[in-house]
Amino acid sequence: MATAGAAGSRTYSFKVVLLGEGCVGKTSLVLRYCENKFNDKHITTLQASFLTKKLNITGKRVNLAIWDTAGQERFHALGPIYYRDSNGAILVYDITDEDSFQKVKNWVKELRKMLGNEICLCIVGNKIDLDKDRNVSVEEAESYSESVGAKHYHTSAKLNKGIEELFLDLCKRMMETAQAEERAKGNGASQSASSRRGVQIVDDEPQATPAGGCCSSG
Amino acid sequence: MSQRRGIHVDQSELLCKKGCGFYGNGAWQGLCSKCWREENQREKQRQIQEDQALAERLQREEEEAYASRHQRAQSQPAVTPFNKFEERKTKEKSSRVNTVTKFFTPSTKTPPKKDAGPFDTQSTPSPSSSAGRQSSLDRDRATQEFIDFLKAVKSGREIFKQCRAFTESMAYKRDMGADELSECVQDFYQNLSDRLHNQFKGSSELVERVMDEVEKYMMTRLYTEVFCPETTDDEKKDLAIQKRIRDLHWVTIEMLCVPVDEEIPEVSDSVVKAITDIIEMDSKQVPKDKLGCITRCSKHIFNGIRVSKKEAASADDFLPTLIYIVLKANPPRLQSNIQYITRFCNPSRLMTGEDGYYFTNLCCAVAFIEKLDGQSLNMSSEEFELYMSGQASPNGPQPAASSSSSGSAALSQAHNSLDVLTGLDERQERVIEKARQLESDLIDWTDEVEQKVQSALESFPLETQQSTTSAASETASAALSAIDSENVENELLPPPLQPQVFAG
Hints:
The complex is a heterodimer. By secondary structure, chain A is α/β, with parallel strands linked by helices.
């Protein structure tokens, strides 16, 4: 389900969700990556919640669709609707805000429970330009990330640090996962079933959806 | 002689013209009573038969005319206003809608037909036959467009055959559950797009275009059968969410923390447009078109946020605003539409595309509205219950704080306009006053000039003027003569120099 299904021309289409608390800088991160802008008053884009990026990684074309999610606590329960069928998740926290790191931990638990190991997780400590106010220790964040099979990155949207690497790395990992999946499938006989099931969305009861079922079959 | 002849009636003339031997009567056209009755009966019979034939012919003609009109309306709809009317009429007739939720379909808005005449009763489908409900008009148009599109595509005939066969086979699966139907359609999409890729070697772009058209053709044909089918409880859910949204009428912009400022005219304009678009979704038949409505609605929302906040909208801003729009619009058959799109839309569009993102947000908004409680609006659950039960309204206890509700906004706007109007009024009066002053000034000025001229005339009487002019003419003539006299002296002067031509 990671591929666009285009057998002739190999183009990967990946969906990446951005998760994290309200003011950790999700939007700044993605705006910096896609538009190379930070706090710009002359914004040309109408919105920063759905952005796409075309990449070329080792000769393979990759279409990246980045889905921003509403970070407010009251929308937390809607998470599963956003992140189903996504190939990657970027979990952002603010290094000056211990609370936002706890939120990331909650997200990781939920994602692993719902989507298993199919999804590539990135844990991102944003705002390293404010390192003097750091409240989340580097060791703790990195050891936690390793323990849940996620990669940890340090970024600053303001200084444009670490963002390009983050997305490039994530794309490579998602491609590996997609290729491994394809090999496992063999001749792709079950491809139609799995990619089709990817859109069987149950809208009314996001919590009750055994989302693991729909993706683990692939 | 002649007189005699006049009254003479021959014996034979008195007899019945039929020659039956009885005497005839003039009143019966010279027939005897028996023959007259026979003749008369036959005449009557023929009259009746003729009348009948005429009636039949008229009816047949009418029928033909109707049928041809019908056909024309089908083959080239909306060409003339008349055809349009016919089209609406057929739509009206064929869509026997008996559910409340279908209230919003445009076809039901047309007035009841009057002139359909005797054909109406025989062609009225039973309400239960869903095939009859479908507007054959739309289907035929979709088929035509599909065929036209496929003409330009390699192996288009093959694609069309497959689609038609599949669509027709769907008619026999009417009793299946909605999920199985969805499975069938999605399987078909998948197989077809795989085939297009592998067998016909189409580029992904072309395949996408073909798949869009396939979806359009198939879903237009299947719409009434698979939209809100009777096997599901979609309709119940529609009514539930509709009631839920009505019950939540008291939710304000502040409670949802929506970052739009409806006091700005451009923003409130965007809000209205967004509401219109989300309501319009129900009127579309093809999943892609429905998604298009959601996307347009979202774009208007983004515009509203950008104008209000002066920065690009993030998901943190977008979702609350979308929830607010859904609450305000209360779109008809919301759940049915969402289910329909989920079941029958092309999967690639929903998975990664921009349309899919907005659709997902709409699903989130609906889920949020369903689960909404006091906590999610930053209020106590008691307060929430009070508002829900209608015992209190948020405007009651704090009327000043929530003054930015739409009603008072409109009122303040009206006040503003009134102020502007009074200002204009004052300025206009000033202008009129100035104009009057100018007018009187002008009159004064002409009077003054007249007076001055008059006084000048008085101070220099006409006679003196005449004497001076005559004196002047005398001196002038004297001067002339003096010049003449001087001319004599001029002859004594040497001749003027002549230009000389030098040779060489």
